[in-house]
Amino acid sequence: MEFIKTYESFKNERFGSGLDHGDTMGILDIAAQYTSDAHAAANQMWSDVDDLVGYLKSDHIPKKYHKAFDKSVESYKKRHKLESVEIDESLITEAFKSSIMRGLHNQEAGTRWRDGLAKELAKRYDLKLDQIQDGDFEVLSDPSQWFSGKYKSGDHLGFFVDDNPKFAAYLKKNKDSYSGADPRVVKNPGLLLSLVRGKVGLWHGLTDNPGSAYSRYRKGSEERYGLLAKEWDLRRAYNGFEGKPLQRVTIKNLKEAPTKVYVLDIPALQAKYSSTGLKDDRKNQKKGATALQDPKEIKKANLSRYNDILKNRAANTDIDKEVKEGIERLTKQIQDGVNKGAMNQYGNFVVGISKKNKREVTVSDATNFLKNLLDDYQRFIDYNRQSKEQYGDTDRAENNYYSEEAKSYALRIKQKIEQIDNYTYGW
Question: Distance between CA atoms of 223 and 182, rounded to whole angstroms?
């Protein structure tokens, strides 16, 4: 039985890599008519348009505006040919070969914040999760081991669990305790306390970035995986049991509260279980790599897009100049990478090594980064234009929603530009 659609199929439907950034901002522009804090969702990962719309309606837009908001969204979806994506949950869980993965997933099977652990792993890492077996998990009996050696790189995911048999026995006797703390779950694989990459407990979408710091919704109890981030659930699960963990996702708590850590080596799993066939033979990999668009054409296309965006500007600014210089530097990296001909194990041309994590950065990384840079630049221009149209030279010209968003994108652009020379824009 097919596990789920391939990554490419989801990608084409705006699911595999999440909702397109431009479409996210388009929906947020609509939402801005009904709420002043729609921007809180700008830096989050959304599976599709309905995922984002549901969040905005539940936490930001007053109910009296829902009907008008829905109408505007439907109009936007039709113009941009957006479709909602649905997946049968049973396709994910019933085919699991790993009892560990099944037990972990069932604890985080989806809330208003996320699609569920298995779906997010499939989306983010392009894995056939039905093929993963219990033997693919490395088990750390001492959780403190996680914070040393190879696990610091970010290549591994650590599932910090509590499988204390005394706790399981307590739950068996106290059936009215927290329903998610099933004694069978505690025995195998253990109650999930946190999902960690490096030194960070992950948020929905498997991101180590909780989003905008100014949002009152950031770092909420429903946004991180595991009970250590959920005060209410933690209290209910351990109600009456001695030795309840402290409610905080800190290194100290992650060392002391869990009994073990289940570890997944993501690059190793991708080599074994990628849904897009990363194990194709070298010949085919090279064939695909050498069919890459001419670097000169990449430069030409991106400069053309830059000039089209620039047409809406009354005068050039430092941001405009920095973006153009960024295009020049990135396309030079691409050209140099292709000229050198060095390839990684997947047949992708290497343009450099990230100074942050020593990873190989590829032409694909560079072209994706170029697109994202110009997306941000487009938004910067658009928000400046809207601020000018709405407020002109009034007192609010420098202090309104549109001007603040423009400033935010200016900062994002500057931060992106700083990543180019040290190759830290790669994954």
Answer: 22
Paired tokens of 349: 């041309």
* Secondary structure element (H or E) that encloses residue 307, with its range: helix 295-310
List of residues 6+ apart from 368 with CB closer than 8 A: none
The CA distance from 241 to 171, in Å, is: 9
pLDDT by residue for the chain (427 residues), tens only, comes to 333 333 333 333 333 345 777 788 888 888 888 887 776 667 565 667 877 887 787 667 888 888 888 888 888 888 777 755 444 444 444 457 888 888 888 776 544 344 567 777 877 777 777 778 888 999 999 999 999 878 887 889 999 999 999 888 888 887 665 555 677 778 889 999 999 998 888 887 777 766 544 333 344 445 688 888 887 778 878 888 877 788 888 899 999 999 999 999 988 888 777 655 433 433 444 434 433 567 788 888 888 888 877 776 655 678 888 999 999 999 999 888 888 888 776 667 889 998 888 888 888 888 888 888 888 888 888 888 888 888 887 877 788 888 888 888 889 899 999 999 999 987 6
* Bridge partner list, 159: 195, 262
Tell me phi and psi for residue 115, to 5 degrees.
-90, -15
Q: Map out the domains of the chain with their CATH numbers.
A: 7-80 (no CATH), 98-108+124-273 (no CATH), 282-420 (1.20.930)
Whole-angstrom Cα Rg for the chain: 23
DSSP structure class, residue 228: G
Contact, 40 vs 52, CB < 8 A?
no
d(CA 84, CA 201): 29
**Whole-model pTM?**
0.47
Which tokens belong to 38? 């729609």
